[in-house]
Each structure stands twice: as C-alpha cells, then as structure tokens.
Amino acid sequence: MQNEIAYPVFCDIRGIADTDKAGRDYLAKYGSLATKAVGILTSDSVSQTIIEFYLKISKPDVPTKVFTDKEAALNFLRPFI
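The structure corresponding to this sequence follows.
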C-alpha cells in the first residue's frame, strides 16, 4: 500500500478504552516498520504517562512520542515529512 515508502504517522487514540499486551507489542515493533516517526495523541495526562512508560519498556524502532495536544504531535512529525 505504501510502495515501500516510510511515512510519519499520527495516531489519535483518544477513543480507545483498552488494549492488550500482544497488540501493544506488535505495534511497538512490527507496526512501525514502514514509518519514519509516530506521534500518539491521547486525551489525558494519565494515559500519556502510561504510554510513555510503555514506550520506555518496548523501545520502538522509530522516534515515537505521546501528546495530549494535537498541534504538538503534528509539530513533532513535521521534520519527518
């Protein structure tokens, strides 16, 4: 679908209520193979803290950050366009 071109990815997860470990592990490693960077938008600081902790443990292969502000997330991704 991407013709082997990596892109920055904006993930708005504000409506997600729950995830499982297998899904998180997959996204941390294989789900970012064709990406340059990932900006994750969440709705609150508690979710942000939990995701930041998970990112430290899973160590994604591409730059990945979590935000509660959409514009900040998009600004993070701009250099990867």
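The CA atoms of residues 44 and 68 lie 6 Å apart.
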